[in-house]
Specification:
3-stranded antiparallel sheet, 9 helices, 4-stranded mixed sheet, single chain, 229 residues, alpha+beta
Length: 229
């Protein structure tokens, strides 16, 4: 009998990988798959000002999240705005910086710098799932996404807490960056429709404008979007 894989290492999982993967497959097909609690790890924030939490899924859950991401990511990639650079295939930080540099050299020297505080922990589940449902109609897939948002948190060994409210996707999960991009995609397109040049890398974004008037317009759009979201 293969032992439970909730808290085992990658190496241990690999030893019986075929049996474990078949077991996961059966649970998924039967609809009985339930993600384990994520392990909460605190790491220093960039710049050394405090710490931020990471939610590390079990090996089994990382396998499932990776498979799920491979299935749904291409669907949403067709919908994502070109000025979104974070956690996307074939794109990276240097691409975003090159785009910002080009806009600055083009005369857009009035800049709005935006960083959403506690973004991954504050994404509302209801609105996020509604956005996923706009492109995904398979009930099992939607159920998987929702179950991953509702995973408990293991702060210390053996102590599992429920998720706090109806918001947040664990920072550290394989699927979380994709879900984060899905949630902000409407803002990306809204800025584009308003004729504003925005460059976004996950929850860090800059809006480059030709005048102070346009800066004020960008602020108003952001306030309105935050109020609706």
């Amino acid at each position: 009998m293969v032992p439970p894989c909730g808290s085992i290492s990658v190496g241990h999982f690999a030893k019986d990988s075929q049996k474990r993967l078949l077991a996961v497959k059966e649970h998924l097909q039967e609809g009985s798959y339930v993600p384990s609690a994520v392990k909460r790890v605190w790491i220093p924030k960039a710049g050394g000002d405090g710490k931020r939490p990471l939610g590390i899924p079990t090996v089994r859950d990382r396998v499932v999240q990776t498979a799920l991401k491979m299935v749904i990511e291409p669907i949403f990639e067709h919908e994502f705005a070109p000025h979104s650079y974070g956690f996307r295939p074939g794109r990276g930080c240097k691409d975003a910086l090159r785009r910002v540099d080009g806009l600055l050299k083009g005369g857009l020297v009035h800049v709005v710098d935006v960083d959403i505080k506690g973004y991954f922990d504050s994404i509302p589940h209801g609105r996020l799932l509604a956005l996923v449902k706009e492109r995904i109609c398979d009930g099992k897939v939607l159920g998987l996404v929702e179950s991953m948002l509702k995973q408990g948190v293991m702060e210390q060994m053996g102590e599992v807490e429920g998720t706090e409210g109806d918001a947040g996707t664990p920072q550290g999960g394989v699927i979380s960056p994709l879900l984060a991009n899905i949630y902000l995609n409407p803002l990306d397109w809204l800025m584009s429709q308003k004729g504003l040049e925005m460059v976004r890398y996950a929850d860090d974004m800059v809006i480059l404008c030709e005048s102070a008037t346009k800066v004020q317009e960008a602020y108003e759009i952001l306030r309105e979007w935050c109020h609706r979201a």
